[in-house]
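Now for one record.
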Amino acid sequence: MTPIFKFEGIYTPLVTPFHDDHSVNFDALSDVIEMLIAAGVHGVISGGSTGENYAQTAQERMEIAKFTVDQVKGRVAVIVGTGSMLTADSILMATGARAMGADAILLATPPYSVPTERENALNALAIDKAANLPVMLYNYPGRMGVHMGEEFLDRVGRSRNICGIKESSGDINRVHLLARDYPHIQMSCGMDDQALEFFAWGARSWVCGGSNFLPAEHIALYETCAIKGDFAKGRRIMSAMMPLMRVLEQGGKFVQCIKYGVTFQGIDTGAIRPPLKALNKDDKRALEQVIRVCQTTISQIMSEG
């Protein structure tokens, strides 16, 4: 089955800049989008957890997504996240994504409810039917409580719209399973420290929060591995990125680190919405140092030709 949409390249799950009163800073969001497009990312995702979707109403998420589509103006792909505890809210965002002209939707398991594979598949197919857009599934059992397992994939894979999956389980055996048994569902890296392995197993895209502030470095790894097949150089780039990935994942401060990384690079992303809190001074200094070293090292590797 030929996919109706090819997920190829770096897809950035956008941060949501806020003012001090926690209202959306659309001017800063515009700056982030323009910076990413200028850097060469291949698509952006609105309404993901990196964008603090868990702390926004469905209406806010739709407003942010509509702004993003209008700002991008077709220059890169826009994927709209539909993840929600309520199927009705997910359908609302799916139909809204279609109406506003989004290119695809990101479809996750509803959190907390712990559905069976059959229930999860029926939920996904209802959202798919409402959107009638290309779908990137999002398997993240660490947050959702369940895997998108083989029964689920067998059921939803019958829909022509289901053409990709962001795999964030951290289980390398899932990469093997998807590559071997579900080649018609394009595999996208959703576990940053396994990006090299994903590309080795045929993934052609990477959804990476760190590309909000280091887009060139993430693009360098993608192009080196997925486009050129130079895994010797790819290992060197990946090695240079590992300290960054450790900082991002440690202590449950992923979103805070991503937002501060963007601020450090010159676009103030402002406050973090509760219940999360901003990084302290020590965390900021540590992240700044890791960013500097990562940029310098990868620049040297890429300059070698």
Summary: The CA atoms of residues 56 and 125 lie 24 Å apart. The chain has one domain: 9-303. The mean pLDDT is 97. The domain at 9-303 is CATH 3.20.20.70 (TIM Barrel).
